[in-house]
User: Fold these one by one.
Assistant:
Number 1:
Amino acid sequence: MIWADRLREEIKERFKDEIAQGKELVIRDEKTLSGRVHVGSLRGIVIHGVIAEILQEEGIKCKFEFELNEFDPMDGLPATLDKKKYKEHMGKPLFTIPSPDEEEIKALGMDTEPGENFPSIFAEEIKGVVEKINLPIEFYNLLPIYKDGRFNECIKDALENASAIRKIYKEVSGGEKPDDWYPLQVVCEKCGRTGTTKVTGWDGTNVTYRCEEDMVTWAKGCSHEGSMSPFDGNGKLPWKVEWAAKWKVLEVHIEGCGKDHSAAGGSRSIAKRISEEIFDYPNPFDIPYEFLNLGGKKMSASKGIGASAKEVSDLLPGIILKLLMMRLVPNRPIDFDPTGKTIPNLFDEYDRLSDHFFKRHREPDEDFARSFKLCQMDISKDPEDIWQMRFSVLSFVLQMPHLNLLEEAEKLKGSKLTEEEKNALEERASYVKAWIDTLAPEEYKFVILESTPNDLEFDEEQKIVLEKLSTALEKAEWEGEEIHKTIHEVKTEADIAPKKLFQPLYEIFLGRKSGPQIGWFLSTIEKEKALEMISSA
Ligand SMILES: [Zn+2]
């Protein structure tokens, strides 16, 4: 059983009463929109999304709500933006900050229009990425929930229980909060910042506060002192308290989080206790997950590939992107090196999984078949069995200007391609082509040599078998399967290790020790030229 199904069983057990009552289970995740969303965040999105899909698959009512957080204060700036220009905005809620202009958007590596405010361009970008994976996600914004007063009760509870919350912080993480600390930050009536305000008192109706000049290093307050209601969006809970409040307000049942929050003494443990002890709401079903490590970072940066979800999603079709994010159990890190073998390996893995799903494999494995099903864009129906060209072959064909992709595909398949197969081929080809042009390592680059290299060194055995092969091929019909058969016959007759025959062939034609499937490969070269090159070796 794969991880997602194991989790489903645990979820069904924990929420059996709710499910029996036909209650809708709420799955939640979030992202603060202070910059482009990092590719690592996609892992959480896919994990939660897949859980939603497989619960729905069994007819269990659920929804996956994804929060676009535009109310957090700006506490850091994407590296390409001008620190001086944004200095005045530091500490303000993100939604009050104007959108980056066209030039800044370009510097961020994005190609969108300026939006209605700073976070909106990042919201649109991540929505686009998620659309590509087609998960059942409902997006919502945080601010309206505050404005509608839905957090009011939790804000009141937090203020009333300030000392209990301080105690939880201390017991869980050892972090001391001063005795006069209140778990709330209001929006300063004078400068509009939330990141710099400190609540100094609470009388049951209003809070008093001071906008501190030096409370944080990343923003300067205006020193204003005032008093106001903390409700209806005037104030914001600090995030560990807010996290717990969101669970209660949105009635969250299932919410995982990244390793950074899951560690002992980390924010999840704090939010859990606040939820249970202050808000009287159970800790949602947790799914701790590991990071996604972007390898070849320097190299990819020099090739213009950044670490954003959008940039990585541009490298892969939706299905393969989803496979990347869900192929491992959540507690194992994902290593993704766009400049290495990860991309070809992912396509190959997808094809291998399909062999299990469609029972082309001699011993079909249920877990592999299930993984194949779950990375589809619509898991409610079985995928169609279509012919696909392997990544390595496709990358080879695309590098051979004399070859026609569709013709080679039909040769390899042995019959005409269906419309669906043609579409799949074209989609795959567009990604593979972009990969060859930008990221492909040298070992995936092929050029057919004009003539046989003259520095080849073969032993006697190899020389004899090449000669035999040349004679045998002369009689063969120049077609992949036939060439393949002939080569194998010569090899068997000469009783030579396959490598000792195949390697010289690749060296003769490609100047390297390996290459695509040999029979088909030779068929893409003119017979006369091929025979001449083998003979002169
Ligand atoms: Zn202020």
Number 2:
Amino acid sequence: MVTKKTVEEVFSKVSRKYDFFLNLVTFGKIDLWQREMLDMLSCEGNRLDVGTGTGEVLLKSQNRGLKVGMDLSKDMLRRAREKCKVCRFLVADAENMPFKKSSFSSVTLSLVFRHLLDRRSFLREVKRVLKEGGELALLDINRFSLTPLLVFLMKFPLKPFGLLIFGSEKWSFFIHSLENALSLEEVKRELTEEGFEVAEVQKRLFGFVYLLLAKRR
Ligand SMILES: C[S@@+](CC[C@H](N)C(=O)[O-])C[C@H]1O[C@@H](n2cnc3c(N)ncnc32)[C@H](O)[C@@H]1O
């Protein structure tokens, strides 16, 4: 069973190779997708990046307010701190955020939504820490007809590379998190039910990746 401790351990262990691997599996597109996600935002104030990892989203953020990144993994955050000196990073859980009500104008989430164990608690926390009219931007993998194919590729032809770079436990975790990705329709439904209005959706890589902008109602 995947727990927060598993998530924390897996990402801490891969933190040094994470950026290299992410570039590899996204064919070098992750940088562009993160910039395009940020371009969807119009809010200028304080920004929170949840599951910030090695801090790439905040590094690319042009907002004039605070840039705050949180993550379960202190090793991922160590990399983030090396990259972005003007950002503030802290170890914290997305489902129980250590911030006051209405602290942020925007919240971003790149490749994190499918890793959250309790998405409803997370969305309630986002609603609490966002100002009214604040924006939530997501970048993630869409579960659709090609997902079983990718799972197959990871379980068979890509497996030797995965095992070589990450080892068996972590590779299994990545497959698990891919299998747990929601369809775009499911994501939209959860957001709407938790008090957000989906304002824009863009698809990349034949719809396998989505960028989504939602506003706090
Ligand atoms: C796939 S990485 C994405 C990192 C970064 N956002 C990016 O786009 O490269 C997922 C990150 O989410 C973090 N994470 C997962 N569940 C979390 C939670 N409940 N609270 C905070 N961070 C979490 C992990 O530790 C990991 O660093």
